[in-house]
């Protein structure tokens, strides 16, 4: 079996669902259930004996050690993190606690477990660390995309904490020989995406008749990847990636924020037209994010060349699927919006115009 951390969040839950849909290998899913963790994401696995959910913090060494000893996983896929840049600006401490200290604590537990394994299992073991393109910093309009050798230059407390965790993972391979794999992925979107992030926030606000907040002039660029493509890439890296290597994952899909929001509005105009006017009428430019990175773009040629992975979805097909998922899953959104989310929206968006 494999052990996944953060498997109740957006990408982790998509990964666990995809894994069990295509594979019979069991999953232990360790998640702290922060505001971003949601057991509803995993409700279809309620009676699936291949899925064992454990409510715990990656910093809880006793629980992590017990799970490793009891279940003897052949691999760890580490998603658990604080993931929202704006939250890291308001409160960086949680990002250090989970992304840095938590990854360190997990690595220490895994190191002890791995060192005691018999030789064949030791050689086959993998620790896959899921990271982000934000560790590379920000690109100018004409810069080439980030490669695996682009120097780290994180700009937000979130990306700095992820960079620190990447460095720890690298050091555990270099120093102890732990068979690690690191993936640095661009912006994901798709089903189960928490509506604090741009795409689900815009879909949710548009449908509720609320403002669609665009930070600054909306000219910032992100490289969007449909979440199931990210999950497929992680599976390929886990299967055939070379220990100690890092792999960039991206969609070859650079869009300005304004372009993304316009496309969502146009698709909603088609799929769920308003009585009057267009969803574009709800767009509002608001105060910019402090230290806002201008552009991210991933050069994903290494994973394509070495592991044969390429994204299956275009932005148009992926976004259509995403919007259709939100239109068909109001109960999921309502449950999310009724919780801690309200406090966040007040903190982040009040007095922003
Ligand atoms: P998310 O915020 O939706 O989910 C994070 C999950 O981790 C939640 O279920 C949460 O409960 C859990 N968690 C948080 N702290 C924990 C702790 N201390 N112990 C155990 N569980 C904890 O995040 P996501 O968007 O699914 O991102 C998953 C991973 O992928 C993160 O490491 C993130 O840095 C990385 N990533 C995300 C994107 C993206 O666009 N969302 C892109 C590239 C990389
Ligand atoms: O690049 C990968 C990263 O992508 C991941 O590592 C992060 O976990 C993930 O959150 C994401 O970070 P971003 O900051 O790029 O994503 P977010 O959806 O928060 O914002 C996307 C862009 O949209 C960014 O330029 C900020 C802008 N934005 C965002 C929000 C929430 C707005 O203009 N208005 C908004 O209300």
UniProtKB/TrEMBL annotation:
Alphabetically ordered keywords of this record: Lyase, NAD
Listed InterPro entries: dTDP_Gluc_deHydtase, NAD(P)-bd_dom, NAD(P)-bd_dom_sf
A family per Pfam: GDP_Man_Dehyd
EC number(s) stated in the UniProt entry for this protein: 4.2.1.46
GO BP annotations, alphabetical order: nucleotide-sugar metabolic process
Catalyses which reaction(s): dTDP-alpha-D-glucose = dTDP-4-dehydro-6-deoxy-alpha-D-glucose + H2O
SUPFAM superfamilies xrefs: NAD(P)-binding Rossmann-fold domains
Cofactor needs: NAD(+)
One function term, GO molecular function aspect: dTDP-glucose 4,6-dehydratase activity
Domain NAD(P)-binding: 3-322
Family per similarity comment: Belongs to the NAD(P)-dependent epimerase/dehydratase family. dTDP-glucose dehydratase subfamily.
Designated name of the protein: dTDP-glucose 4,6-dehydratase
Record organism: Undibacterium baiyunense
């Amino acid at each position: 079996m494999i052990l996944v951390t953060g498997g109740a969040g957006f990408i982790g839950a998509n990964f666990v669902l995809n894994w069990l849909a295509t594979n019979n290998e069991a999953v232990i899913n360790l998640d702290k259930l922060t505001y971003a963790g949601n057991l509803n994401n995993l409700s279809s696995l309620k009676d699936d004996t291949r899925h064992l959910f454990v409510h715990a913090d990656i910093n809880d060494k006793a629980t992590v050690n017990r799970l490793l000893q009891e279940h003897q996983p052949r691999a760890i896929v580490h998603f658990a993190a604080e993931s929202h840049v704006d939250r890291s600006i308001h409160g960086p401490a949680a990002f250090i606690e989970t992304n840095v200290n938590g990854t360190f604590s997990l690595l220490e537990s895994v190191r002890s477990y791995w060192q005691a394994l018999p030789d064949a299992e030791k050689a086959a073991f993998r620790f896959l660390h899921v990271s982000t393109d934000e560790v590379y910093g920000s690109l100018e309009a004409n810069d080439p995309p980030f490669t695996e050798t682009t120097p780290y230059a994180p700009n937000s407390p979130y990306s700095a904490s992820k960079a620190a965790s990447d460095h720890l993972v690298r050091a555990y391979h270099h120093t102890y020989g732990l068979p690690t794999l690191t993936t640095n992925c661009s912006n994901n979107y798709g089903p189960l995406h928490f509506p604090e992030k741009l795409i689900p926030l815009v879909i949710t606000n548009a449908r509720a008749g609320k403002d669609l907040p665009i930070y600054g002039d909306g000219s910032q660029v992100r490289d969007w990847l449909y979440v199931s493509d990210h999950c497929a890439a992680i599976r390929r890296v886990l299967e055939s990636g070379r220990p100690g290597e890092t792999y960039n994952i991206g969609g070859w899909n650079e869009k300005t924020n304004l372009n993304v929001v316009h496309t969502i509005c146009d698709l909603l105009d088609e799929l769920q037209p308003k009585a009057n006017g267009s969803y574009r009428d709800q767009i509002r430019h608001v105060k910019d994010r402090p230290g806002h990175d201008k552009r991210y773009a991933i050069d994903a040629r290494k994973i394509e060349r070495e592991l044969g992975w390429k994204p299956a979805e275009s932005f148009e097909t992926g976004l259509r699927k995403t919007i259709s998922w939100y239109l068909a899953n109001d109960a999921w959104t309502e449950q999310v919006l009724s919780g801690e989310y309200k406090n966040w929206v007040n903190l982040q968006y009040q007095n922003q115009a």
